[in-house]
Amino acid sequence: MSVKFISHVDENTKGEWFIKLTDTLNDESIICKDLDEYKIKLEKCSSEYGFDIEVVWTKAKGLSPKNYKDLNNKMAILQKEYEAEINQLNNTSEN
Prior knowledge:
Layout: E1 3-11, E2 17-23, E3 28-32, H1 35-47, E4 53-59, H2 65-94
Parallel strand pairs: 1-4
Antiparallel strand pairs: 1-2, 2-3
């Protein structure tokens, strides 16, 4: 059974977005100030469960459209990088 992690996007007092990553099994939370930090923290936390996790995304009601768009654009770039990495691994394993 996978462990549920909640990734909640909110804004700080400076108007910058951040992600609060919560491990629901241990009820522990980590604040991530950018996607690079989020990626590292999620990988570390999920390794404790053999990477068998489910990630649920939520956002604060007050999250500005600008911050939502910024995060969404950055996540799209990461998704493309991830897909390219997977394709490269698949092509390597076929040879």
